[in-house]
């Protein structure tokens, strides 16, 4: 009986967020996917026929290289963010509480400045006439005609800059809860610093790592503003193509098809991971040593 | 030399706070050696120095003839059972125990065999696949012990291993620990603030207070012949008296204790007439009687008035007022014989005790008197614990 009311309360409390997600997330996603199977009309609207032509149009010879660039930029930037955030989180969670708060504040402070302005600041910074370039040239590290801007590397740097805090915060949150006595236990049992780090610390913060990977990889995959501002035509990502199809070509079904592709690219690994986890849990109950 | 583990002049400060002050101790091979002291006395720091988690400011740690002071924890032949167990939450019982062997790269077949052996030792074979958070406190404790022992350490360090367990479980684990020690024969270094744990388990105890070793000895030595007022007051209950020597003799000398009585005292110290000495008499050494008992001249007698009684089941505590002295005494049963009158509040009674039971202290510190139990304190503590239980 009591269990029943609890269950009821649970459902009641979940309802608002569920409703929100369904109305503003699930339904639009389904609409976008559905739109990918419509034809376009020449006035920028959506045709009234169901067709596979829009999907077929995705075999644009330009796309494979853009998709490939999108993938490697996202993967590499995620790896850089995570690999940088892990040791950082370790040291932040070991220092005194006062300094932890200061460092966290410093991580969050840039968010008070508008995202676009921050990205634009990078453009100024990396610009051929910009400070960074001038310093590099003065130090004879770069030649005057090196271009720091408008290439995939610039996009990578700015993606890492933008998403590093999102990697740092969940990993720090996990590290802060981590029981550092476990490291001592590992040393005590003969592990050196590296072994203890890999076998005890990394598994100890794995939930934070997982969150960090998701919150960096997915937005990186959908990057649009960053390649638009600091990348050039040679460093377009899928997000730019979607925007281009929407605003310039006014071909909404085609943009939808690209978006659907992106959605599945994200959902597929997640679905695989979830099913694997499900089967693993099912099996682990019967594993004997 | 059969001193196996030697602490040689260890000092350690954290900031301005001196935690350990020139500590020298010697532990024999195969014994259970306890560091006993109140919290903050430095005993855990000393253990951590032995494990390698802290480096002493000065002094050496010598294990089996080798100076290990500067050796990193993973290179020492010592393993620790942590106070909060520190089991790896992502590994099951089997893998927790196997951790040390996996690190040292032991072959899979040998590893399985060894882990099974230790699972059997701690009687958790059926729980091998369980994750630590599915275990009870006592089981976690046993896994922590097996995980440490499987590496065949020269010394097993136990940091308040029973502190997180409830009383009944603690008593069972004490027996288990003793059995495991008998089985493996490894030297145990046991840190505790609980005198009964240290007394029941140890071959030798070092009583530590404020970074200084107050006394090293077997449990009976520590209890019966405390060297300092701290040891006397920290381990068990006691009564302190300050007296002037009026008669020196062997084996008994006589003290005059102002406002109490002249007391015949066992004399094992170098004293002379007129010396001021401090003695400790344990509460259970007193015999209580309504009439003055007929006993030999080796007994001391004093008459007092019962001021407070606390009934504790198997024994009863009486606080008896003799002038400004409030003497704590203990009696195993409320009455010894059925025809005997029960002692009650306000009764005038006789205390008698043998001269052997007065023990002269080498060092006396007035602050240690705060460690003595007083009747009202005890009542307060009881009320507090009742209030805590209700919460």
Describe this structure in words.
Chain A has 289 residues and is mainly alpha-helical. Chain A has a single domain, classed as MetI-like fold (Orthogonal Bundle), CATH 1.10.3720.10. Chain A has helices at 2-35, 53-56, 63-94, 97-108, 115-126, 131-138, 152-177, 181-188, 193-204, 206-221, 225-229, 238-248, 252-284, and strands at residues 38-40, 46-50. Chain A has a two-stranded antiparallel sheet. Chain A is globular and about 70 Å long. Chain A starts with a helix and ends in a 5-residue tail after the last helix. Chain B is of the alpha+beta class and 391 residues long. Chain B has 2 domains: 3-229, 3-Layer(aba) Sandwich (Rossmann fold), CATH 3.40.50.300; 239-388, RNA polymerase II/Efflux pump adaptor protein, barrel-sandwich hybrid domain (OB fold (Dihydrolipoamide Acetyltransferase, E2P)). In chain B, 26% of the residues lie in helices and 33% in strands. Chain B has 9 helices and 20 strands. In chain B, helix 2 (93-103) crosses helix 3. The radius of gyration of chain B is 25 Å and the shape is globular. At the A-B interface, helix 8 and helix 9 of A face strand 6 and helix 2 of B.
CATH homologous superfamily title of the largest domain in chain B:
P-loop containing nucleotide triphosphate hydrolases
Strand runs of chain A, count: 2
Structural class of chain B: alpha+beta
Strand content of chain A: under 5%
Largest interface: A-B, 21 and 28 residues
The largest sheet of chain B has its strands arranged as 6-7-8-3-9-10
Secondary-structure element series of chain A:
HEEHHHHHHHHHHHH
Give the oligomeric state.
heterodimer
Q: Could you name the CATH class of chain A?
A: Mainly Alpha
From the 3D coordinates, which CATH architecture of the largest domain in chain B would you assign?
A: 3-Layer(aba) Sandwich
CATH class group of the largest domain in chain B: Alpha Beta
Radius of gyration of chain A using CA atoms only: 24 Å
Instruction: Output mean pLDDT of chain A.
Output: 88
Approximate strand percentage of chain B: 25-35%
- For the secondary structure, the number of strands of chain B is 20
Known CATH architecture of chain A: Orthogonal Bundle
* Percent range of helical residues of chain B: 25-40%
Query: Which of globular, elongated, flat, extended, rod-shaped describes the shape of chain A?
Result: globular
| Termini Cα gap of chain B | 54 Å
Radius of gyration of chain B: 25 Å
